[in-house]
Design brief:
The complex is a heterodimer of chains A (480) and B (483).
Chain A lengths: L2 E12 L24 H4 L10 H13 L7 E2 L1 E5 L9 E5 L8 E6 L5 E13 L3 E3 L8 E3 L6 E7 L6 H17 L12 E11 L8 E6 L2 H20 L7 E6 L4 E7 L9 E2 L6 E2 L2 H8 L6 H11 L4 H7 L3 H14 L2 H19 L10 H12 L5 H14 L3 H7 L8 H14 L1 H9 L2 H18 L6 H13 L1
Parallel strand pairs in A: 11-12
Antiparallel strand pairs in A: 1-9, 1-10, 2-15, 3-4, 3-14, 5-6, 6-9, 7-8, 10-11, 12-13
Helix pairs in contact in A: 2-5, 3-4, 6-7, 8-9, 8-10, 10-11, 13-15, 13-16, 15-16
Chain B lengths: L5 H10 L4 H19 L2 E4 L1 H16 L10 E5 L26 H8 L3 E6 L33 H8 L5 E6 L5 H7 L2 E4 L19 E6 L2 H11 L29 E5 L9 H16 L3 E5 L7 H16 L18 H12 L2 H14 L5 H24 L2 E5 L15 H5 L6 H6 L3 E9 L2 E9 L4 H14 L11
Parallel strand pairs in B: 2-3, 2-4, 7-8, 7-9
Antiparallel strand pairs in B: 1-3, 4-6, 5-6, 5-10, 9-11, 10-11
The chains are: A alpha+beta (480), B alpha/beta (483).
Amino acid sequence: MQWETVIGLEIHAQLATRSKIFSGAATAFGAEPNTQACGVDLGLPGVLPVLNREAVVMAVRFSAAIGADLERRSVFARKNYFYPDLPKGYQISQFELPIVGRGSAEIMLDGGEIRTVGITRAHLEEDAGKSLHGDFHGLTGIDLNRAGTPLLEIVSEPDMRSAKEAVAYARKIHQIVRYIGICDGNMQEGSFRADANVSIRPFGAELGTRAELKNINSFRFLERAINFEVERQIELLESGGRVVQETRLYDPDRDETRSMRSKEEANDYRYFPDPDLLPVELDDAFVAAAISGMPELPDVRRLRFSEEYALSQSDAAQLTASRELADYYEATVSEAGDARLAANWVTGDLAGSLNRDGIDIGQSPITAPMLAGLLRRISDNTISGKIAKQVFDAMWSDSGSADEIIESQGLKQITDAGAIEGIVDEVVNANPSQVEAYRQADEKKRAKMLGFFVGQVMRLSKGKANPQQVNELLCRKLAS
Amino acid sequence: MHDKNIAALGAGLRAGDFSSVELTRAFLDRIEQYDGELNCFITLAPERALARAEQADQLIRSGKAGPLAGIPIAHKDIFCTEGVKTSCGSKMLDNFIAPYDAAVVSRLEEAGAVMLGKTNMDEFAMGSSNETSHYGLVRNPWDRNLVPGGSSGGSAAAVAARLCVAATGTDTGGSIRQPAALCGITGLKPTYGRVSRYGMIAFASSLDQAGPLTRSAADAAVILQAIAGLDRRDSTSAEEPVPDYSRQLDDPLAGLKIGLPKEYFNDGLDSEVARSVELAVDEYRRLGAEIVDISLPNSDLSVAAYYVVAPAECSSNLSRFDGVRFGYRCQGPKDLEDLYKRSRSEGFGAEVKRRILIGTYALSAGYYDAYYLKAQQIRHLISDDFKRAFEKVDVILGPTSPTTAFAIGEKADDPVTMYLSDIYTIAANLAGLPGISIPVQPTAGKPVGLQIIGNYFQEAKLLNVAHRLQQESDWHLAAPAGY
């Protein structure tokens, strides 16, 4: 039997507000337990939630970014259930009337095919706290620092057909929320996490029963969790069993998913509109202010890059992967001029070095103006491309400017015709047999043999001789 | 001294006839003397009260004191008071010392009022007789075999017995107006959103509203002045400007249109209560008001709608009392589920549990549309009834409660009969309208309350209508024998 996989994702993006969604407590990560929880976050008797305006602004920006129907009136609802890290016994979320309606995102599949993934809705809600299971002598500790942190839950349609597509979609959403500055995207700290609804069916059949994989906090785990789950469901169905609707947890250490609770045990959340909060009503002025200053979105920027800078699809995609990288590239181009050359360096040596050292573009020791300074010296023939790599490495470790390093290490290209001619003569004189062989050879072979002489000249000049001048001179000398 | 109104006490304080410390001591002595038999207070705060009174005396001497400076009051134990036990009448919060002041508490404190203590109440404000309190029932000072009404029964009885000058209360379905009626005092439930709910322990968030219990409309105006107004900490608090509530008190009533809803004078109304209300209506006619018969056709739906909406909201609001962070926790819980089940079973009383169960049921999947949604639709119908009525009349008059105070224990085992004692007050909560109850001609020695309902933010009009009657009559001046 050929099975078709059907996947929908619910992504929780933590909004990058300074304070919580319904209280004034800070949202910074990593503080001592319960030091960033005020009375509202503790659910003290008598406290009331007050909506953080900035969280609404961010939801409006997201709505614009995915071309969604922004709901001018949305309603907060209470989702009721008991859990020790849920202080009020209910989570304030949006249920029937979310702030962001139907939208979509485009993902690029292997081979460059573009697929549109539908986004059903996105809604604002508060995060819960954390249960801590270590060091409490058999008891459980509760840390409410995270309680009340603003989340945007982004719910997709079941439009993805493989783990790869699901990851591509998750990456796209990750890219968008970071571009528009509403989420730091830090998956290790839990700022961006996904639940995957996975089912399988014979091609063309009705949707199968789904399992929900909870709280996956890396793209790699997302892919592995889905693949494991698909295999599990296929084995189950092919051996005559059936899939039960349940919540499962992915364990990265054992690379498997495990049942958390079945639908029968699932809570009845008894949603109802939160009477402590008024409906969120957005007027034109609020929406206009929220989306003013929205940056260019990644897909638009990618297309512009490939046109404006004459870049390949894949270079344009790579350079627009994050807003910081794209900004870096454009800053480099504006100072260095040569877009092609800049693209090669940013996607090549720079990306390689960042990757090797495991740092972000924002932490690069070589800033865009510094890289532009290097590229200008290539363009104006002060150094060759090969020497440039050496200069780049020195800049990476010492943070000096290209000019300083070229100067201090004497790497300036030799363009003085007399000096180059001297070296060329030396090489020609030192290798009479090769010269003779060259002169006997036909045009085709000569081109190959020239490399030997160029190599010798470059070796003697420590790579500094201008390659074009060396070529010209050698051709002339060898021919006569 | 204990019989004087706020204006007279303020004048005496400013004239130096007595100090706030003396006044505070006098009331603390009265509490000492009488509260054993009435049980109005759950917690007394004498040191805090005397310290505040001393500060108030300094302020008064400096000449900068407002009308409430140095006036001893009491707060219903539903309002959080920093450093003072805030129990909400429940075992669940018997060990809860609030770490902050409710908006109502801090505003009255800023006005210089002196808090004597926290008053008894039905557990989590759920009750109409003050018999559901963990701290025991409150007795009605007019007859100690009778209930004082509820849920603000401690506040109402304390004001009636002159154990404090004024008290705060909360009103979700009549919990200020009904005990005010049964204790022969004045109780005002403001428009929903007029007074901040911040720091007031929630029963049913869309209905709860704080207000004053006093011995006159003039006193209520002074208290409301201090507590009304926008509070950014409560999203449902109104932007509406706050007028000077005392300025319009004496406005003449000539030409005032008073509506009498026929549904409020039906078979369920005690005939003696009806007669007292009619006496008051005659008085208003004499004062130049025009009496208009009106109809609020959906009145009969209000109790049913209320007993869906209020329990639904309470079932969620009371989820935070889970034994995890504060309040009662059962002994030696086996596991998490045991902790929840026993802490809540042992910490809540029967009426609270009944309402949590009703509310949980009403919100459950499959029942939500039939109950909660339907009840919300009824709220709209009821609001529309009032909207149409206020196109014709300025205020609506009727009885506050269908009967006078009933005997302790009389309705305790019959929740539905108990619920019907709020039949005339609930509609104002469902619609969010202001209402006031003032004492009229007593019957067989028992107080009778007249309810006046106004349009949104028309508290000044209600106080004016109430005050004019109190100037022409002395029903509100009567004190229960022995107090």
